[in-house]
Amino acid sequence: MKKTTVYDCSIIELDKHHHVKGNITVVENGKTVPFQVRRSYYLYDVPGGESRGGHAHKDLKQLIIAASGSFDVTLDDGKIKRTFKLNRPYQGLLVVPGIWRELDDFSSGSVCLVLASMKYEENDYIRDYNEFLKLKFDE
Ligand code: TYD
Fold it and tell me: What are the extents of the domains in the chain?
């Protein structure tokens, strides 16, 4: 498991084109994100009080964007936790591999857009926190 820390994760400012008729934000491979986007998905209609995530990835890199509304992302490297409130569609949170994440406090109508570096692979997930700690520190 990668020996990454929460300090390897950061907010990336995305390209924002302001227009009186509405704004547009562009994300381009090799330009805005430090990985090739191979998959994108979005969470929506998350019931109030619900939390998502609760896992880590072995190799997957992600950019998490509050495309609409707001939510909190808490990152945990096994030693340090950092919580980011995402509420701007022109900012993305880069999450590197080997980091446990929880998403909660979704505002009503919020949309969590995720750009990911790999196709979906259940084998890349670590869904048990104790196993995460073991893989993070015992190898
Ligand atoms: P998961 O990543 O565990 O959700 P979250 O982190 O948002 O709580 O995904 C939930 C389920 O959705 C998972 O069991 C399988 C399915 N899924 C796919 O089939 N493909 C995907 O690309 C993703 C992200 C999830």
Answer: 6-137
Q: How far apart are CA 73 and CA 25, in angstroms?
A: 21
Residue nearest to atom 12 of ligand 1 (CA): 120
**Closest-lying ligand 1 atom to the alpha carbon of residue 55:** 6
Atom 22 (ligand 1): residue with closest C-alpha? 120
Token pair listed for 67: 């495309």
Cβ 23 vs Cβ 14: under 8 Å: no
Q: Residue 53 has which token pair?
A: 């995530």
Cα 81 to ligand 1 centroid, rounded to whole Å: 23
User: pLDDT confidence of 139, banded at 50, 70, 90?
Assistant: low
Q: Is CATH 1.10.3860.10 what the domain over 6-137 is classified as, yes or no?
A: no
Is the whole model's pTM more than 0.70, yes or no? Answer: yes
CB 97 within 8 A of CB 61: yes
The conformation of residue 122, written as its DSSP 8-state character, comes to G
